[in-house]
Amino acid sequence: MIGGGFGGAAAARALVAADPTLAVTLVEREAVISIGPGSSAVIAGLRDAASIRFAAAVIPGVTRRQGEAVAVDPVARRVRLGDGTMLDYDRLILAPGVDIDWDGLPGYGRAAAEIMPHAWTGEAQTILLRNKLAAMQAGGTVIMSIPASPIRCPIAPYERASLIAWFLKTHKPRSKLLVLDAKEHFSNQANFQAAWKALYPGVLEWVGLPDGGRVTKVEAAIGRFETEFDDHRADLGTVVPPQRAGAIAVAAGVADRSFWCPVDPATFESTLVPGIHVIGDAIIAGAMPKAAHAAGEHARACAAAIVASLRGTPFTPMRLENICFGLAAPSYGFSVRGAYLPNGKLLNEIAGSAKTSPPDAPAEMRAREAEEADGWYRQITAATFA
User: Fold this and answer.
1) How high is the mean pLDDT of the chain?
2) Are 119 and 238 in contact (CB under 8 A)?
3) Which pLDDT score, from 0 to 100, does residue 386 have?
4) For the chain, where do the domains classified as CATH 3.50.50.60 start and end?
5) What percent of the chain lies above the pLDDT cut of 70?
6) How many CA atoms, within 13 angstroms, populate the side-chain half-sphere of residue 204?
7) Burial of 336 (0-12, 13-18, 19+ CB in 10 A)
8) DSSP conformation letters of 159-220
């Protein structure tokens, strides 16, 4: 098992729960993991950075190895770690998450990210954006760019935009946020746009693809965002970066030309390399979004499929569910839910399973869903890292 985040830790737990005789090893690079959920609240000063920081899981019955998997030999069924250690496997599960596609946006590289933080991976970037936002002068302009799909947690950029707008409205009078988006439509769009109209008139402006929202180049040193129609200058820029499957997926040969991983949607076994399963944000999942909750569902199905295969017993594809919460302000939440089943090469949403908060919901419902979002956060982090 490579990767100890929401998918990897859940898969390791599910395997030993289903068959305690299995020898399960979990390889995780970090001793302390900084997670994506909650990071936008940190940026807006609503959470402390420590609240999104967790010690890597110690799971009864699972051998934990701290290290980075750097190579996979699918013929010998062996994983090589960065320190040269070799680990043999009968089945390998990769939960590599996403990496930034540093070639995906001209002008945006690691040096540019120190000026225009992405705050998409790693605690240091989250803190950097938080500090830059806090230091910006009142009346300044923040520009945020959002790439085309696919990305991790499709709802997250819009929650981030909302909470940055909340911070500006609360702490930086006369400041504005311009959101440049390479998409015309996005997750929970009606709820977000209703919230922006109600909460942030004159503060948050969203420009979608038809109106020139796709950023084609950045010049971080001068705060410049170039689009197909116009140039924009920011006092503070932040870039939600183009993404791809984590590096070990590419090294293992389970990513295709899109740099994402095609899998059997019932068992999560790679369609490119037998004996390797891939779960979480790295996969091509069809209608099921890349999300923390979804990764745990992938893990549950993948573990059951592996145990059935090792025992030589039939496996019935499982119904998978997902929920994503979004915050437009500290007490203004909403959600989108769905259920999914394998259909051909992808996961399709089950007809009638989608449930989205109504855009005209009363304030009481918004406050309740904000509380539910916090409860979900506490539950999933406890289940993953406790």
Assistant:
1) 98
2) yes
3) 85
4) 6-97+246-385, 110-239
5) 100
6) 28
7) buried
8) HHHHHHHHHHHHHSTT-EEEEEES-S--TTHHHHHHHHHHH-TTTEEEE-GGGT--EEEEEG
d(CA 35, CA 57): 13
Fold held by 6-97+246-385: FAD/NAD(P)-binding domain (3.50.50)
Fill in the amino acid letter for 38: G
User: Which pair of structure tokens corresponds to residue 272?
Assistant: 């490119």
Radius of gyration of the chain (CA): 21
CATH topology of domain 110-239: FAD/NAD(P)-binding domain (3.50.50)
Residue-wise pLDDT tens digits, 270-286 = 999 999 999 999 999 99
Cβ 3 vs Cβ 94: under 8 Å: yes
How large is the average pLDDT for residues 77-106? 98
CB 168 within 8 A of CB 134: no
Q: Name the strand (E) or helix (H) holding 11.
A: helix 6-18
Task: Give 60-63 contacts, CB < 8 A, sequence gap 24+.
Answer: 60/16, 61/16, 61/20, 61/24, 62/1, 62/12, 62/13, 62/16, 62/24, 62/25, 62/26, 63/23, 63/24, 63/25, 63/26
pLDDT single digits (tens) 188-238: 999 999 999 999 999 999 999 999 999 999 999 999 999 999 999 999 999
- What's the pLDDT at 254? 99
| pLDDT of 79 strictly over 90 | yes
pTM score: 0.97
Query: In sequence order, what are the beta bridge partners of 100?
Result: 243
Q: How many CB atoms lie within 10 A of CB 55?
A: 11
Residue 94 CA to residue 279 CA, distance in Å, equals 6
Given phi > 0 = left and psi -120 to 50 = alpha, else beta, which region is 186? Answer: beta
Angle between helices 123-135 and 156-171 (to 10 degrees): 30
